[in-house]
Structures are given as C-alpha cells and as structure tokens.
Amino acid sequence: MSKRSLYRIIIILGITVFFAYFTFPLEKRISLGLDLKGGMHLVLRVDTTHLSEEARKDAADRAVEIIRNRIDEFGVREPSIQRQGEYEVVVQLPGISERQRAIELIGKTALLEFKLVCDDGDKFKEAIKGNIPEGLELKTLEETGEKVLLYKEAVLTGEVIKNALVKFDQSSFGEPVVAIEFNSEGAKKFAQITKDNVGKRLAIVLDGKLQSAPLIKEPIPSGEAVITGRFTLQKANDLSLVLRVGALPAPMYIEEERTVGPLLGMDSIRKGLLGSCIGLGMVFIFMISYYFLSGLIAVIALLLNLLLILGGLGILPILFPGVSATLTLPGIAGIILSLGMAVDANVLINERIREELKNSSNLRIAVNKGYQRAFSAIFDSNITTLIAAFFLFQFGTGPIRGFAVTLIIGLLASLFTAIFVTRTILDLLIDLNLIKSLPMLKIIKETNIDFSGKRKLFFIISLILIVYSMGSYIIKGKTVYGIDFVGGQIQEYRFSKPVNIEDIRRVIREVGFTDVTIQQFKDDPRVVLLKMPFGQQSLFLYFKDKFPEQNIEILRIESVGPIAGKYLKKKAINSLIWSMLGILIYIAFRFKHINFAIAGIIALFHDVVIALGFNVLTLRPIDLLTITALLTIAGYSINDTIVIYDRVRENSQFFRKYTLNELINLSVNQTLSRTILTTFVTLLVVISIMIWSGEVLNNFAFTLCVGFISGVYSTIFIASPLVILFSRKR
Q1: Domains of the chain as residue ranges with CATH
Q2: Across the chain, which distance is largest between two alpha carbons, in Å?
Q3: What pLDDT, in 10s, does the model give residues 215-259?
Q4: I want to staple 229 with a disulfide (CB 3.0 to 4.6 A). Which of 61, 211, 350, 695 is the partner?
Q5: What pTM was computed for the model?
C-alpha cells in the first residue's frame, strides 16, 4: 500500500467517524419538522394601523416577547417564535394537538378596559335608535345580550394588572371566573374609581367585547376585581394566562397557517421512508448489476454520502448558532434526490474509465485518466445545481428551505464521495493486486447519429410544446395556482369509518359556508379534503357534533391569506429568475463563450416550461413544492448539458479540423450512454417517491419526472444544436 493511499484512508475514516458522531443518535441530533411529527406553523401580522409612528417601531418585538411568554406558560416544548419582516411574527409549535385553543391563546390581544356605564336614559334611547352621542359607544353584554351604553374612554386598563387567577363563583353554582389583582398603582386608581362612582355600573371590556357590567355597591379598596362571562374552566384558565402575561401592543391576524395532525405526520414518515428505501434499493441493485465491482464501490460511496448528509444536518446548529437541524418531508426528498443525482458522478466516472480501458490495457492508467477527464464535468454540473439550490434557500420559505439545505449538503458530500472515496478504494484494490480488470455491462452501444442534422424538426416539436404549455397556463389564469400563491384554505380530516360525501355537503350548508370544494379519496374513503376561501373557521367541532358516532382527527389545515400569497409568489418568481441568471453567468464564464450559456439557458427554460405545462394539463395545483421541483429541474437539466459542453471542449483539443457541427455530434454520441443511464437511475428514485411517498410529495415528484425526461430530450436535441445555430448567425 502506498503512503498516498494510506493517508487517504486515514482521512476518509476520520471524516466518517466525525460525521457519525454528529449523526447518532438520530433523535438527539436531528429533530423532525412539523410536517413529520405534527404541529402548527403560523405567520401573524401585527396590525399597527391604529398606533402612532413612534409606537410602531418596536410593536413586532414586543409582540414576539408576549407571545413567547404565553407559549411558555401554555407548556409547548421547543417552540419557535421569530420576527419576520417589519410587522410579522412566525410561530412554530411542534406536537400541538389543540389547534383552536392555541390560535386563541396566541392571537388574543387581551386588551382589558374598565369603562363607566352611561346612565342617561335619553342618550341611551338615542343610541338604540342608531344616533350614538359623541364620546359614547353601544355594546352588547356577551352573557345576556343586554344593550349597554358606555363612555368610550377607559378609566383603567389591564396594564396595571399584577396577577390573574381562576376562581369559582359559589353564587353561580361554582361557575369559573377570573379574579384579577391590581398592582399598587392600579389598586389606588380602582379604589378611587369605585369610591367616586358608588351606585353606578362599571363595565369590563375585553378586546372590545363587553364581558360584564356590575353595579358598584361600595368602594373596593382591596385592589381586586372579578371577570365573569360563563367561562368553561379551560377558557377561564387561558384568559387568566393572557392577562397575567399582558396584552399585545396591537391586534394580530393570521396571514398563514399550516397545521399537521400527528396522524398525518406519522403517515408521512412511514410513506416517505417507504418511497425512499424502494428508490434507493432500485438504484443499488442497478448499479451493482450493471457495473459489478465499480457499482458496489459506488453503492458504498452513496451510503457514506447519506451519513455525511445526516451528520451535516447535525453539525448545522454548531456552525450556525440558532439554526436547528430540522428534517422535513421536502428535506427527505432533498436527501433522496441528492443521492440519486450523486449517482450521476459515479456513472460518469465509470463510463470514462470504460472508454479509457478500450485504449489502454493498464488498469491503473485507465482509472487515472477516467477520473481526470470526468472531474471537470462533475465539478461544473455540481456547481450549477448548487447555484439553483442557493437561490432556493435564499428565496424559499419554511420546509422548502429544508429541501435546499439537504440538497446543498448532499451535493457537497457527493463531490467528496464520488471523486475522493471511490478513487481511494479503487487505488487500494489495485495496489494490493486484488483486481486486474473492471468488467461492466454495456446496454447502449456506440452510436453515430446525426443529431444536429434533425434539429429543425425538434425545434418545431419543442416550440409547439412550449406554446401549448404557455397557452394553457395563460388561459387558466389564477386557477392553476394552489393556495400558496392566491390564498385560500385546505382542511383535511380522517373519520374512523367511511363517510358519505353528501352528509359532509349537508353539514357545510347548515353551517353556512360557501364556495367549498369537497374531495374524497378512492383509496381511503375515510379521508375528506375541503378547499375553501381564506378566513373560514375550522369545521372540526361541527363535524364532531354532527357525526357523534365517528372518531374524527385533523390531518392538516393550511390557510394562506392574500397578502402572504402574493409574498410567496414574488419570492418564488425571484428564485427562478435569479437561479437562471446565476447559471447563465457561470456557464458563460466557464466555457468562455456566450453561445453555450444562452443555448443552455434556453434548454433549461424549455424543460421548466414543459414541466409547468404538464402540471396545468393534469390539473395539478402550482404551489411552493412545484416551484421547488422546477428549480431542481433547472439545476439537473443543466447538468446533462454541461457534460456534453465539457466533452465538446475536450474534443476540440484532439479534433482540431472538425467543424463545430461535427464536434457536437461526436460529443453527443459519446455521452449518450451516460445521459440516458443517469436520467434512468434518477427517475428510479423520483418515481418511487411519486408512487409510495404519499399525496404531499406526489405533485413534486410528478413535476420532476416530466422535467427530467424533458431534460434528456433538450440536452440532445435542443441545447447542442442551438450552439451551432447561434455560432452560424455570428
């Protein structure tokens, strides 16, 4: 064994042990995202319209602190509360099961006001008629429906509350009430107010709603008051909690909600792992069956690649404090996809070694040249995909950024394992004289097809497909978008027994909801999915009341407001534009000619548009995961193109008398086997995700399938011929 091989082995073992340390135990190093273990993701907007310019500056920061205190008392483990933008707060509550209670607890302003009741009978009559005198307001008592006329200006507010506790009113059959205790300043004011207004009524108003209006029979020097309102024990507890913590600086509204029930989370894990294992299993079987020993070495490298990705996630919080190692469902897809794409490098290396073995009987020389000549294509293709992944992370939101993180880590890991690890293993086997040859199967024989000669036909075919795709997209307008981009709500429930869809429709009509689309799945008639406008409340309690014999569970609730939808759409478009621009600049710089860059970008645009068009034609909604898939297609599509460009650059040094047309035809034919094989292997992974990983990732995987197939076509018939066309025009 040479010293060089020994040093390489030590490095590989050291890195393996290091990353294994940050991988295991998995449950300690890596936490599951809300889409896998259930929970709530909320984006709340602070309404500062009624605040002065000075009070607006820190409104969001104060809201974050108050929400954090409320959640701490609520008892949620590992919550995440962060400010986003100028007036938004992002709240993540893992494992939460009481959705409605959590929303009320977080979003309740808890503005407590004490207001005197106007006892002027004439003014009350005028107010009842609709002529409310200035400085007064007419309220309805929540408990009894009584109309009460109040002075608008509060004589005391909740800012002076010291404590709030739940007690039981024995005069009302032990009904829960909230007893509040004022601080010293508040106690003095309250005592003075009650002293000056004996015989009058003092209204208690919470968030603009009249809770009670008791008669002041005598001065109350104790500094205590009681809020009644026919509370349940839970409501009373929650009210006392928010009053103790303090009121929000301004009302807050939900701009975006994504709630995943624990049942769907467990189902997502099971299906995600099933699809992943099947996909990887098929890849491993193919690699070993087709490349024999080289394929086995590639499989070992892929397993190490998986370890490095998981370890990389575990290291993230150390390298970037405040960043959690969270694995989401799109993150799992990112891992599997990066492993599928890592096969590309291994196939490329093996195909180059095969070519060199035809020209040299010396195995060591063939291996050396194979790796050397494959390196530039592997490096360039990974860099372009990293550019797409970077912009996905930069402009993505939530779980989509998790996909980008795992993809970035996976691409970096594949560079190390494909180039360094597999080379070390092969060199070691050769050094120890354990192998004399590297037999491989060859299904696709050498070809000599005039691809560029048929370019006009394929240009016409592509133009028709692009026009048809864009036309369908434009004609259908906003209807092609999912709720991520236009706003709306999805509610998905699972019943314990199959439910009749007409019964569901009847309940929705009784509740008074309109414009609701009901969907039931053939493979599981217990599941009902509802699509409706933004702002509708959950139907969970109504269903429980109307179907008492059923055990009903919330699978997910997704709600996106129109403002959030526009924001997400803008970020998605930006990510596509910037990723294409970044790839264009890199290719132009790397290949020293703008023709290659423009042709590559046109082919990339071709694949993205066709994938988008097939989504529209198959009535699949375009959402954030679709954009993620389109960006992945952009990175992957350019990989194939770059491999051909790289071969053109290499061949131009050996065949100096060849025309550009001849060089491109030669290069496309030489790389045809690799182009088809890598796409086939990656499709094994994507198709397994589409079939076995469940509904959430189905559209994502479908988009990738269309894009990858289109990528093979555009690489061979569009990108390379376009270079010839542009060069002739110049």
Answers
A1: 39-108 (3.30.70.3400), 112-247 (3.30.1360.200), 261-478+565-729 (1.20.1640.10), 488-560 (3.30.70.100)
A2: 111
A3: 999 999 888 888 887 888 988 999 898 988 888 988 999 999 999
A4: 211
A5: 0.82
Lowest mean pLDDT among 324-328, 579-583, 626-630: 324-328
Short-list 197, 272, 248, CA closest to 33: 272
CB 30 within 8 A of CB 326: yes
Task: Tell me the residue ranges of DSSP E strands in 218-298.
Answer: 224-227, 252-260
- Cβ count within 10 A of residue 262: 17
* C-alpha separations of 195 from 112, 189, 369 in Å: 21, 10, 97
The DSSP secondary structure of 582-644, one letter per residue, reads HHHHHHHHHHS-HHHHHHHHHHHHHHHHHHHHHHHHTT--B-HHHHHHHHHHHHHHHHHHHHH
130 Cβ neighbours under 8 A, 6+ residues apart: none
CB 289 within 8 A of CB 590: no
* pLDDT band (50, 70, 90) for residue 284: very high
596: Cβ–Cβ under 8 A, 6 or more apart, which residues?
Answer: 587, 588, 645, 723
- For the stretch 261-280, pLDDT in tens is 888 878 878 887 888 889 88
The H-assigned helical ranges of 110-219 are 121-128, 184-196
What is the pLDDT, as a whole number, of residue 600? 87
Look at residues 297, 285, 287, 290 and name the one whose alpha carbon lies nearest to residue 423.
Answer: 297
Mean pLDDT of 572-598: 81
Residues 113, 158 contacting (CB under 8 angstroms): yes
